[in-house]
Design brief:
The protein is an alpha/beta fold. 39% of the residues lie in helices and 20% in strands.
Length: 119
């Protein structure tokens, strides 16, 4: 399956394929952002596409990737179960809670949860 733009609750979302290339750097994020410019307002990235360093906040990978989305005024949604990562990191748990309070970066379990948030 390829990345594709679909409408979720009336909002165009680039849904990234689970089997696509890993997103491990700011350049990888820019590649996805470029694809989103075909008309998406939100980019939904499966947890499995994110490099493990994304979830180790000290690495700076998450901050760099999220900042690229902010700079290009695209919302980023991380889709999938990240409890394995949050179980061992208070800082990551706090980031998820704070992000989900805002509008720019969200962490959701699945696309149905995204549709509910957008409704």
């Amino acid at each position: 399956m390829a990345d594709e733009i679909v409408e979720v609750a009336g909002v165009p979302v680039l849904v990234c394929a689970a089997d696509g290339p890993p997103i491990a750097s700011e350049q990888d994020a820019l590649d996805v952002i470029g694809a989103a410019f075909a008309g998406a307002e939100i980019v939904a990235v499966p947890v499995g596409r994110l490099d493990e360093r994304f979830f180790a906040l000290r690495s700076g990978v998450a901050g760099g990737i999220m900042q690229k989305f902010v700079n290009y005024r695209l919302r980023l949604v991380v889709v999938g179960d990240i409890t394995e990562h949050t179980a061992g990191s208070t800082a990551l748990r706090d980031l998820v809670v704070e992000s989900n309070r805002g509008r720019q970066v969200w962490f959701v379990d699945d696309l149905d949860a995204l549709a509910t948030r957008l409704s």
